[in-house]
Amino acid sequence: MEEASSSELWGIFKPSVVRELSRAEGGGETRSYLKRLLLQHGGPKSARVSDVYETAFAHLSRNQPAEYFYKNAVLQRNVLSRYGSKRSRVFFEFRAGTSKLDALIARDSMHAYEIKTERDHFRRLPTQISDYQQRFAHVWILSSEKQAARLEGQVSSAVGLAYMSSRRTFEIVREASRNTAGLRAAAILECLRRNEYLKVLEEFGFSGLGLPNTAVFREAMKFSSTLDPEQVHEATLERLKDRPNALSVSALAKLPLYIRAAAVAARCDDEDVQVLLKNLACKVYQKERA
Predict the structure, then answer these.
(1) What is the helix (H) or strand (E) element at residue 187, kind and residue range?
(2) What domains are there in the chain, each with its CATH number?
(3) Nearest 5 degrees, angle CA 8-CA 10-CA 16?
(4) Which residues contact 146 (CB under 8 A, 6 or more apart)?
(5) Which CA distances in Å does 256 have to 63, 89, 98, 226, 276?
(6) pLDDT for 233-284, tens place per residue?
(7) Quick one: 41 exposed, middle or buried, by C-beta within 10 A (0-12, 13-18, 19+)?
């Protein structure tokens, strides 16, 4: 396993692979992939699926830290520590205007995390921050310690800065300020699914009944322009925390560290986690059912 390439090892953390491993009657394709790794790069035939994942995670962690480890740090700090709550929810690759946010945490507020590893550039950062500040009350940049030092004088003091230490802990350079002046109600609502933004607007008196489907979005956004963006932000926060099939804190905590971020990226729910844990405990060379 030590001789496997990083791309081979990262392959087992792909959302499609973890999704297959978390489905009832699934896991066969993943174990086939793991068997090939063991055959090509060594490893005991008695190994369990969890052994391969844990070994791969440790090996990858010793190399240049990738975005995956940063996402695990976000989960630990915002969801699984004292900062989180039972209703905290996390979303990866969350669409926000022209940008795709690395991690959105819905807990006491909406906390947007843009991750910048050593390999990332800052060319799109002004656009990304603008997109996020229109939609989320707290905006953060999570980077390496070297990147954080470069960013401190380049971005607004309202933007929180944090870095991941060599021990993979989440270290704060400065806290994100609650910045609501730039929030736009329509921009916030555009982040939601149609049924979600309609439910939010119903709380403010909007009804799409009688409108043709082609006009609902236009009229909903027009109506939102009359609303207080901060109130829309709070209503959207509650809607996200109640989103069905989102992974709960208690289920996330049951997973080993090495696969938590992968389970979120695979959009696993609580039932999927139970199956995932069972399949992780299986031997790689377990006989398939006839």
Answers:
(1) helix 185-190
(2) 6-64+261-280 (no CATH), 87-174 (3.40.1350.60), 185-241 (no CATH)
(3) 105
(4) 118
(5) 20, 18, 34, 46, 11
(6) 999 999 999 998 889 999 999 999 999 999 999 999 999 999 999 999 999 8
(7) middle
